[in-house]
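Methods — Computational structure assignment.
A single polypeptide chain was analysed. Its primary sequence is given first, followed by the predicted tertiary structure written as structure tokens.
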Amino acid sequence: MKDHGRQRCGWPGDDPLMIRYHDQEWGVPVHVDRKWFEFIVLDAFQAGLAWKTVLHKREAFHKVFYGFDPQRVAGMSEKAIAGAMDNPAIIRNRIKIRAAVNNARAFLRLQEIHGSFDDYIWTFTAGRVIQNSWSSPEAVPVNTDLSDTVSNALKQQGFTFVGSTICYSFLQAAGVVNDHLVSCFRHRELTNA
């Protein structure tokens, strides 16, 4: 898709929120734990759904999950979980809501062990961004050996809803992997960053 002479990946379509997310966020390396937790939560809710659906509910998720503060999410009461289930502004899936609470607890444990989740997750690539060179959307994988490894490691640490495809999604979103198409202006910008 072209916009003001710039070529971008086709997946944002013409949705302004998706375009802004693509142009400003997707694939930018993350080094803030709260942002990591946000991507883990949102990508778990995306399972079986379109990212556009989740993105358009992001602000509501932000409110329900206390600004993606893992400490507060880890302490969510049954009443708060029931309140989330009654909130039509989010995806009301009890298993995914409970996974967010469980994953917050696992996230905090990893922070205690490694100092930060960020320090932990970047060890899988020795702190480097994987620069891919895909020329078509069909070439971009839904999972890789890296996402298999991260998925297995997170499951061993007690995380749920972190299958290989979900892990690959948040690794892409958080910039561990640059999967912008080579024709996309963001591929070049992120490669040279």
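Note: Residues 94-114 form the longest helix (21 residues).
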